[in-house]
Amino acid sequence: MLRFLTAGESHGPCLTAIVEGLPAGLAVDVEAINRDLARRQGGYGRGRRMKIERDRVKILGGVIAGRTTGAPVALRIENRDWANWRDRWAAGDGSTEPSGRADSTGLAEVLPRLSVPRPGHADYAGMVKYGLDDARPVLERASARETAARVAVGALAKQLLATFDVAVGSIVTEIGTVVATIPGLPPEELWALAEESDVRCPDEGATARMRAVIDAAREAGDSLGGVFFVVATGVPVGLGSHVHWDRRLDARLAAAVMSIPAIKGVEIGPAFENARCPGTQVHDELYPDGQGGVTRLTNRAGGIEGGMTNGAPVVVRVAMKPIPTTLTPLRSVDLATGEPAETQYQRSDVCAVPAAAVVGEAMVAWVLAGALLEKLGGDSLTEMARGK
Fold first, then answer.
1. Backbone phi, then psi, for 316, in 5-degree steps?
2. How many domains does the chain have?
3. Are 249 and 312 within 8 A, CB to CB?
4. Interhelix angle for 30-41 vs 147-162, to 10°?
């Protein structure tokens, strides 16, 4: 069973992750992990924070001589911005002295309390849930900065999948009101085109229009969301299950991708479009492949039927809302006084859809890697290969 846990705050010393269940013998390419971390940091519309960070992973355990041992893998990603925050951080973390007296939330007085929750963020619900009078402990953990650790974890999953010829990539199809026209090319060619675009869009004309709407949103003090696709190729038939609700692969993929901050919609294949069509125009008909098996001419099921992969590419379409932190203030309430108030701007991105697509790749890869391990079994890569 694969599982992982992350820890760390947006402006704390580092992000950490523990990955359990990777088979022994997997060759770990650290630079490939770092390349995915750099891809997450890129994208037109990102904020000033990305000019500070230079994310690189350090493996602290579970890998010897470049290969996994079967033990938990420990990952660490330094927050370079910590140098700008450590003197304002709380006492009690064992690493720094406070520059002011710590208050009831554990934050130093020099770090001003945030008592006005931002609409659309975790601020209000988190403050109520944990009985806090300050939103800062909530926003520090709810921040999408945490997804850097997920990308590192997902990169390990990609490396496991690659040994079984499974590949995962992403493209952006919408930002704001701009909708791209996607060329009818194989996924690998679309991914290559997306890597050349700073909005991860394989449509060159749409790329220019996306940049323009991001510029307009920045000028207006606003933010933008969008839509991206994650596609996995080479996925074998039968990952997942039709037997139990919690083992259905489409459900697991939806939950994993929906856990990414600001993601509010997930569909497998063109699900909502399918819902408006009769069944004869939706279901992917089967044809003999001439080798005793079957083939399909369409993939409207998104590669999953009955909770299981069917051999076609797995296609996950994802909707991301606009980032809730905007330069233009929104109406809120100061929970310290109960009076109407406006939000205070916290440094953020204008648009992070291209970065979210890379995080989406990580989460899809993680789910598929877990399902593959369940299917093949084994404590080592050698044992998994025997079960293929």
1. -120, 120
2. 1
3. no
4. 130
For every residue of 127-143, DSSP letters joined together read HHHHT-S-SHHHHHHHS
Model pTM?
0.92
Q: Which residues contact 67 (CB under 8 A, 6 or more apart)?
A: 24, 25, 26, 27, 28
Cβ neighbours around 224 below 10 Å, total:
25
CATH of the domain at 121: 3.60.150.10
Q: How far is it, in rounded angstroms, from Cα 164 to Cα 155?
A: 15
Q: What is the CA radius of gyration of the chain?
A: 22
* pLDDT tens digits, 20-57: 999 999 999 999 999 999 999 989 987 665 566 689 99
Please give the structure tokens belonging to residue 225.
């969301």
Read off the pLDDT of residues 119-137 as tens digits, 9 standing for 90 and up.
999 999 999 999 999 998 9
* DSSP states of 37-78: HHHHH-STT--THHHH----EEEEESEETTEE-SSPEEEEEE
**Amino acid occupying residue 41:** Q
Report CA torsion sign: 147, 167, 266, 175. Answer: positive
Q: Which domain holds residue 319?
A: 3-386
